[in-house]
Amino acid sequence: MGAWSAPPTTQRRVRRILRKFDPWTVMKVSAVLSALAALGLVLLSVMLWAVISRLQLVSAFDEAAARVALIDPDESLFKAGGEYLRGMILLAASWMAGTTATLTVGAVLYNLLADLVGGIEFTVLEEVPVDTSGRHEPRGRPVPGGI
User: Residue 89 and residue 55: Cα distance in Å, rounded?
Assistant: First the structure.
C-alpha cells in the first residue's frame, strides 16, 4: 500500500435539472471547436493532396476520366493544387460558420423549450467525505474569522 490513501467517502443521489444554456458561451465554444476541426480538415486535405501528387495519381485520375468521357482528353479534373486548397478552405470555413450558427440557434431553442417544460432532469451520484475524526462540526454558516 502507498503512503497516501483517499479519505473514506459515501455517495448520495442528487437530482439536477438542466434549464438553460448561455447562447453566447455556446457560440464561443462551438466557434473554437469548429475552427479546430476546420483547421484539421484543411491540414488533412493538404496532406492528402501531397500524397496524391507524389504518387502521380492526378494524371491517372485524368486518364480514367477521359476514358469514361467525363472530361475532354486535354482537360484535367484537378487544375492545380492552389484551386484545390482554396476550395477546401472555403468548404471548411462554411462548415465552421454553419456548425456555429446551428449550435447557437439550438441553444436558444432549447432555452425557449426548457422554459415551457422545465428542462432536462437527471440524477447524479455525489461523493461526500465521511467524518472519521469523531468530532462533529456545526452545520450552520461559518463565521468569518473562525470565531
Answer: 23
The candidate with the shortest Cα–Cα distance to 18, out of 137, 128, 118, is: 118
Alpha-carbon distances, residue 58 vs 36, 53, 67, 89 (angstroms)? 29, 6, 14, 20
For every residue of 52-89, DSSP letters joined together read: HHHTTHHHHHHHHHHHTTSS-TT--S---HHHHHHHHH
**CB atoms closer than 10 angstroms to residue 129:** 10
The whole-number pLDDT of residue 80 equals 65
Averaged pLDDT of the chain: 82
Which letter does DSSP use for residue 146 in this model?
A: G
Q: What is the pLDDT of residues 66-87, one digit of tens each?
A: 777 766 666 666 666 677 788 8
Sign of torsion over alpha carbons 43, 48, 51, 54: negative
Q: Is the dihedral of CA 88, 93, 98, 100 positive or negative?
A: positive
